[in-house]
Amino acid sequence: MSLLSACLDRLARLGRFLWSAWAGLAGLALIGALWQAGHEAYGDFILTAPLDTLAAAARLLREGRAQELLALTTARALAGFGLCTLIGTLFGVVAGYSPATLRLSRPILTLLLGVPPIAWIVLAMIWFGPSDLTVAVTILISATPVVFVGAVEGVVTRDRGLDDMARVVGAGPLRRFLFVSARQISAQLFPALILALGSAFKVAIMAELLANAGGIGGALARARAMLDIAEALAWVSLAVAALIAVEYVLIRPVRAELERWREAAAPWGVKR
Amino acid sequence: MSLLELNRIGHAFFGRTVLEGITLGVARQEIVALVGPSGSGKSTLAHIAAGLVEPREGRIARNYLRHAMIFQEPRLMPWATAAGNIGFPLRLSRAPRRMRRQMIADAALRAGLLPEDLGKYPSELSGGMRQRAAIARALVTDPDFIYFDEPFTALDVALKRRMQDLVIEAAASARFAALFITHDLLEAIRISHRILVLDAGGRGIAGERLPPGSPGTRDEAAIFALRQHYLTADPLFAHIHDIDERLRP
Q1: Predicted complex: ipTM over 0.90
Q2: Of A216, A220, B139, B197, which has fewest CB within 10 angstroms of its CB?
């Protein structure tokens, strides 16, 4: 009975989510229209028509190599993202609970955020050569601070009243963390994770392009060398599609499951 | 033997003494109301007794089996349904799942929550319902001692009365003892067997009064007359409404 109702609830939410895709589609159509206008104003060489770009992307996918390159870049981005999630969350939670660590890490954070990712790519290239490790390390360094700050915010802004409540009913530090704090931290952490995932893809492609490490970045570099605008735009579209796919398959469902109560809290009518 | 004994408890926040030499005991099935002016350290004392705050000095003997606490705010977890919140102590004590549902339903019923409210999230419940859920969460483990930390201050008058009746009934049927922190003298008289008055500076218990009769049997007129008598003619309650909001602990 309760299982059935839980399934129905999720199905209803999925339906609502899919229905809300019309709005997203409208936004995409708007971009497409602007793109088309730009194409008609500046011609094929500067900006290829959106439909031609889509055709080029489809051709790339059909011809085989593209899927391999996409998988390679996605795997690299995900590896870097996984690492930065793990390390950022771990250190963020520790720093959130220990003010001394937080004070110690603030200047390090400023330093890490201040150095442009491109500098890290150059360093990583020298250290590791054009390999997966270069990409992963660059992602790690450039995306970890965001996750770290998200985790710290989650710990610092948690409701301490709930901690006391849990302590009164006999929860030790570990169970207080697991049952009470972890949920509150995740609420702050997820926006940071989505941001980090986006920057993981961006940095991965940038690192591939500069380090000549293959993947979509490598293909982009080739398209640039051959001044093939259609192919370059097609690669960009494919990379964005991969990012969106990963975000909506990997992160959003987990977040929706954890934040079911927020939807209940929203007033009736239009759910955002 | 008392269920709870505090012996010469003292506490200080950042070097400022808020409590000093507090000695009190709560007997089995006794409801003790602790009143005192704002900022006299009542809540701190309840937190010390419940083990949330480590006192700077003094001894605490807790001779009960299980305690629960009802706070001024409901303190429900926003991501869990009412049932999830009420069942939280059971989850911590690793009660079998099958039994949990029945115990949650029983506690909710005693706190006046309807079965259809159990699936709602706290944000979907009204203020009174949230506090009912908090009361149900305290009752669910069948504790023999409950700390009440000004639980009904934020509720309106009618709701407050209803909640007080609920506590009186629950105390009579579940036979728990309680330390009830409040600054509302009327509430203290309605609900308790014994009223302790905390010294305005937190230096010991200034005195105690035993309202005649037992909770639930006193009629409203007598309660109100007793309150008037306490406030106008009893020197013990002379400072009860003194407020110095700068002196927050």
Answers
A1: no
A2: A220
CA distance B84 to chain A (A): 11
Residue of B nearest to A256 (CA): B79
Q: Is the pLDDT of residue B1 over 80?
A: no
Read off the pLDDT of each residue in A12-35 and give the average, rounded to a whole number: 89
B31 has which bridge partners?
B178
Contact A164 B88 (CB under 8 A): no
Residue A103: inside a domain: yes
Q: CB distance B79–A166 less than 8 Å?
A: no
B172 and B227 in a common domain: yes
**CB nearest B78 (choices: A169, A171, A261):** A261
Per the structure, how many domains does chain B have? 2
> Could you tell me the pTM of the whole model?
0.85
Would you state the pLDDT for residue A51?
A: 92
Please give the average per-residue pLDDT across A264-270, as a whole number. Answer: 64
Domain range enclosing A212 = 48-259
